[in-house]
Design goal:
The structure is a single chain. By secondary structure, this protein is an alpha+beta fold. The chain has 2 domains: about 180 residues, no CATH class; about 200 residues, no CATH class. Helices cover about 55% and strands about 15% of the residues. The chain has 15 helices and 10 strands. The strands form 3 sheets. It has a 4-stranded antiparallel sheet with strand order 1-6-7-8. Strand 9 and strand 10 form a beta hairpin. Helix 8 packs antiparallel against helix 10, helix 8 runs antiparallel to helix 15 and helix 11 packs antiparallel against helix 15.
Length: about 475
């Protein structure tokens, strides 16, 4: 009998063809999975920022005149806390003219929250920065402009706020960052009415003159107005059972939000890529007698994702901060010639300029990525970002037209000009070319950037863990107080 079978050549050809087919299928699956991850991250970030912008827009247009003023401490960066009064909403959704409520916004470690007398709400856990600025500065008007010659037009512009919310999220499974910016403008209506009517008095102020007509809100709830602080038994004892149950529901909501944000953050931490090549990681595995920087950061990444308490998270963050500080001193020497021989005062200026140049490098890199994304999606290109160095060293001299129509010139002081010039000179002397192209840096820089990203995420995790623990403590205390009613 003749036995039939496959020759070795036939088997090798079958394996080769199967490899090609499977490789093609895997490539398609990888591309689809990549697009899904990017799409999900983009939708999540856009939803959070648009939802946040809607809250901000609704609150700011209802601000009571003179309860909010832009100062150097107001939103213009990555951390702030503001508080103001807005006209309260009635049960039918309209604005009351005889009652106000306190509103607070806080941005800390990427966590944007909104607080009212009824409690706090997490709006987004992925806010990179927020800026609020007036559409026109009353003291900085050029002669002949419409703002300078038309009082009503100027009043509208002075009451208008331009708001920009920038967000950043790590794409799950890819480790890359996705950026999105939401912008809006809003006119503070009560402020506008006050500027256009010299004898204007808001309805709220008028009713305050007759205490029998004013709607007085429960002062005990105002006493609880805070940015996620722990309540006390004394505070809670002033509330009735219905108010306590409402407060309990709010704290349960906040706890659920904090836990959900912590789960999302954990995925982001686990997805943070150190940017090392496969060969580098293989070399780390084989070199068992020593621990590389990449291995250290990957280990901290794992510890940070697993950390369930504030103390454990802070311990890991502190280790990474020490690592980053050591690397920064090394990088300063790479970027600035004769840095080691500079005076302490010179080093201080150069270090400040270095931080700005690093941030501006990321801004420009992110802008180029967003432009590429916009081109692929056939959407409008983003606005070019303002560099930190331009903000810090901008000309502070300006002119404006006073009430009599005369032009007044204001010059910046000599000390401010000299410092701005020194900062600009240091900025221009810093060379970051050794880092390579943005997004294609050497392993050493990628590992350093990953550590900084993990530190930021770790700080956000601490903030959320503190919110979670505070809310849980409040829930337990409120439940005990309710039991006594």
């Amino acid at each position: 009998m003749k036995k039939q079978g496959f020759t070795l050549v036939e088997i090798m050809v079958a394996v080769f063809l199967s490899t090609i087919v499977l490789g093609g299928v895997y490539g398609i699956w990888t591309q689809v999975s990549r697009h899904i991850s990017i799409s999900n991250a983009k939708q999540k970030l856009q939803h959070e920022l648009r939802n946040s912008t809607n809250y901000i827009q609704n609150d700011f247009k209802s601000i009571k005149a003179d309860t909010f003023e832009l100062t150097d401490e107001n939103p213009a960066g990555t951390s702030f806390k503001i508080e103001f009064e807005k006209f309260a909403e009635t049960q039918d959704g309209k604005l009351a003219q005889d009652s106000t409520e306190k509103i607070g916004y806080s941005l800390l470690n990427g966590i944007l929250t909104r607080s009212t007398t009824n409690g706090m709400k997490i709006l987004s856990a992925h806010v990179d920065s927020m800026k609020i600025q007036k559409a026109v500065d009353e003291a900085n008007l050029s002669a002949g402009s419409l703002e300078a010659t038309d009082e009503d037009f100027r009043a509208g512009r002075e009451a208008q706020l331009d708001i920009s919310l920038a967000g950043k999220i790590i794409v799950e499974g890819l480790g890359t960052e996705m950026f999105h910016v939401e912008k809006t403008s809003v006119v503070m209506r009560d402020e506008y009415m006050k500027k256009t009517n010299k004898t204007y008095k808001s309805n709220f102020d008028l009713t305050k003159e007759d205490l029998n007509k004013i709607v007085v809100k429960d002062s005990s709830q105002d006493a609880l107005f805070s940015f996620g602080s722990a309540f006390t038994e004394e505070q809670l004892s002033m509330l009735d059972k219905e108010q306590l149950e409402g407060l309990l529901a709010n704290q349960n909501d906040l706890l659920a939000q904090a836990e959900s944000s912590l789960n999302d953050l954990k995925k982001g931490i686990e997805g943070t890529d150190t940017g090392e090549s496969f060969l580098s990681k293989t070399g780390d595995f084989l070199a068992f007698w020593s621990e590389s920087d990449g291995e250290k950061v990957r280990g901290w990444r794992s510890d940070l994702a697993k950390a369930s308490t504030v103390s454990a998270t802070r311990e890991t963050v502190d280790k990474m901060k020490s690592f980053v500080q050591t690397k920064e001193n090394e990088f300063l020497g790479n970027s600035i010639s004769n840095y080691s021989s500079m005076t302490e005062e010179q080093k201080k200026i150069y270090k400040e300029a270095y931080e700005m140049k690093i941030q501006d490098r990321s801004l420009n890199g992110a802008y180029e990525i967003m432009c590429e994304q916009a081109e692929k999606n056939e959407t409008e290109a983003p606005e070019k970002p303002t560099l930190n160095i331009d903000v810090a060293t901008g000309d502070s001299s300006f002119s404006y037209v006073d009430g009599s129509g005369a032009q007044v010139n204001v010059q910046s002081d000599n000390e401010g000009r000299e410092r701005a010039e020194a900062l600009r000179a240091a900025y221009d002397n810093i060379d970051l070319a050794w880092m390579g192209e943005f997004g294609e840096e050497d392993d050493e820089v990628e590992i350093y950037n990953a550590a900084k990203s993990l530190i930021n995420q770790g700080e956000a995790k601490i903030t959320l863990q503190e919110m979670r623990d505070t809310s849980q403590g409040n829930i337990d205390l409120i439940s005990d107080v309710i039991a006594t009613k």
